[in-house]
Amino acid sequence: MSHPHYQERAAVLSNHARPVIINVDDLGLSTAVNDAVIHLAELGRIGASSYMVGGTITDSEINRLNQLNVDIGLHLDLTGIFPSALRGSLKSIIIASYLRRFNPMQVTDIIKQQLDGFEERFNRAPVFIDGHQHIHQFPVIRQCLINELTNRYRSEISKGTLSARVTTPLINDVKSWIIYILGGYAWRESCQHHQILTNDKFGGVYGFDADRQQLAMLWEKWLQGAPCHTANVSPTLIMCHPAVPDNASHSWQDDIKAAREIEYEWLISDAFKNLLHKHNVRLMRWSDMTSAS
Length: 293
Description:
Distance between the termini: 23 Å
Structural class: alpha/beta
Number of helices: 13
Mean pLDDT: 92
Oligomer: single chain
């Protein structure tokens, strides 16, 4: 069953429409995140979410996401909740990647474990690939990942049903460029070389310290900066990290809990809905690129 907001998206994009994928990261991290993804999908505000294999999602949540046609991808994780011998801080992963300290076989084994875990939970391949704290684009990791994807999903890649996140900055801010410099160009080139579909620009980057008003201003910038449709432009991807307000105690550590709740309140608001309309945004899913390619 197709969501009414996506029927609108299926129409031919006008030259003035801005095709945008709004992707919720960290699906599976907590019930609060899962609930946010489902509610935002019901409102027609998001079309995709990336799942952390170390997390938890129920059968009923998966069924509801399927009913809402939400594209689910793999959120490759070395710095978060997936237990592995290589798990560490973002800084330690960056250093080990750039000094080529990682054993490629060990990295590949962890990638395989997470892809296996995804397939087992969702009974299918991921629709797209991205990385927690963008680790998917770092040296060694990106080569192991591209090798495993091209070996495992040759058919999906040839049909255009497997995509990948690239981090080409949507707006000129320091944090976006730092993310991109940390392997973004090489990862994008590798995806293009192997004919893996990607988003165009990448937005949603900020310090998780914004209040509601500042967040609204950031979204204004991101949506205003998203390119209008042309035949050669893939959708802009804007990531977000919402969670429903939840005062229950958690076994997981979440340094950005407050930011997640502010994001959720903003994304469900009429002000956000009006902003999408103001900038003539056409909400897309990753899988919409297949028919357009």
